[in-house]
Design brief:
Radius of gyration: 18 Å
Number of domains: 1
Helix content: 40-55%
CATH class: Alpha Beta
CATH topology: Rossmann fold
Shape: globular
Length: 369
């Protein structure tokens, strides 16, 4: 039910180490005004709707199907939120959930851990976040990474995200770190809007004074210039937790950027880390996206094990799910990581996973209709 695409031996070692363990799931929510740029993301049909995507996904992640929501899931151009995949697994397997607010315009309507962050300005400004806040968020990540690892002595951590426009801030971080990510990142669109993303990133790194520089960039300053608040919190959690337990960075382009950020941070600092304990877990819709090049991107970052669930919606009776096979949505809210965990830790088959997701979609459609 999952495949290792890169760094095969490291990925296989991680799988063998943690396949007898159960996961603890954390979702780190953030926001960037980059997500309000027209056409930048399909995670919400309009810029206004995208302001509420993360808090709506968080509410559904925690509560599942309800008769009413404080923040209903926003309508998408096509498909359905990946939170349905995640919720189906977490609910059925009774996986503990930790929700972090790294920087949202509106707090979620469900219990969360407040990192005292703020939404990022559009990365085109070159001044996305105050540098002091970036350091504070990183420290919050380190503290919570240690706390979560204490609870995970016989478990592993799944670290997921929900940031609309996050693949564009990911491209900015990768570019700033000197990694050639041109044409390789993914998006929620069926055909990745590479040209738009690259123009936005070029403007951001130029305004930050980082364009055409030939010296290493401080990763904290880079996040402050063109990043988003989720990235630095997840980096901190993963670094601290990796000393004691396994960490799956659950996402595609965004989590590959976080992995690159982790490597950059430990290159300039004294923080202990066990990179062998960190993998990236996503969906095959990301790993095999013909409009990006995820595998090459992972290889460019260097020795990062990339795993992907082989979940397939071709036989689904729901058009909302079949849209994934046409390239819509692809990933988010830890969908790929939770699907991998269903197979790795609970021996779920494709049929069981599909049935659980379809049951959730069916119950949700009944409430809506």
């Amino acid at each position: 039910m999952f495949r290792i695409y890169t760094a095969q031996s490291l990925g296989q070692k991680w799988v063998e180490t943690y396949q007898e363990c159960s996961p603890i799931f954390a979702c780190i929510l953030g926001f960037t005004d980059t997500g309000l740029i027209p056409g930048i993301s399909a995670a919400g049909a309009t810029p206004e709707a995208r302001k509420y995507t993360a808090i709506a996904d968080a509410e559904f992640l925690i509560n599942g199907v309800q008769s009413a929501y404080h923040y209903p899931l926003p309508s998408l151009h096509q498909g359905v939120s990946p939170v349905f995949i995640t919720r189906a697994v977490l609910e059925a397997c009774n996986i503990p959930i930790y929700l972090f607010n790294a920087g949202l315009p509106i707090p979620p309507a469900v219990p969360f851990i407040d990192c005292k962050g703020q939404p990022a300005n559009c990365l085109t400004t070159g001044q996305a976040l105050p540098l002091s806040l970036v350091y504070d968020l990183f420290q919050q990540g380190l503290i919570w990474g240690e706390k979560l690892a204490k609870n995970a002595t016989k478990n592993y951590l799944i670290l997921s995200e929900c940031v609309v426009g996050g693949t564009t801030t990911a491209l900015a971080i990768l570019t700033g770190l000197g990694i050639n990510a041109t044409g390789k990142v993914n998006s929620s669109h069926p055909n990745c809007n590479h040209g738009q993303k690259e123009l936005i990133v070029k403007k951001g790194v130029t305004n930050a004074g980082y364009y055409d520089l030939f010296q290493p960039i401080n990763p904290f300053q880079l996040v402050a210039a063109v990043g988003d608040p989720m990235q630095i919190v997840v980096a901190g959690i993963a670094i601290a937790a990796s000393i004691k337990t396994g960490v799956m960075l659950a996402g595609g382009t965004q989590m590959l950027a976080v992995y690159a950020l982790i490597k950059a941070i430990i290159n300039i600092s004294e923080y202990d880390v066990n990179l062998d304990n960190i993998i990236v877990g996503t969906t095959r819709w990301v790993a095999e996206d013909l409009t990006g090049d995820t595998v090459s991107l992972a290889e460019s970052i260097g020795n990062v094990p990339l795993l992907a669930t082989q979940l397939n919606f071709s036989s689904s009776s729901y058009e909302q799910l079949k849209m994934y096979e046409q390239g819509y949505v692809k990933e988010g809210v830890g969908a790929g990581g939770s699907a991998i965990a269903a197979s790795l830790s609970f021996n779920w088959t494709q049929e069981k996973l599909l049935n659980s997701i379809e049951n959730l979609v069916n119950n949700y459609n009944k409430i809506r209709n």
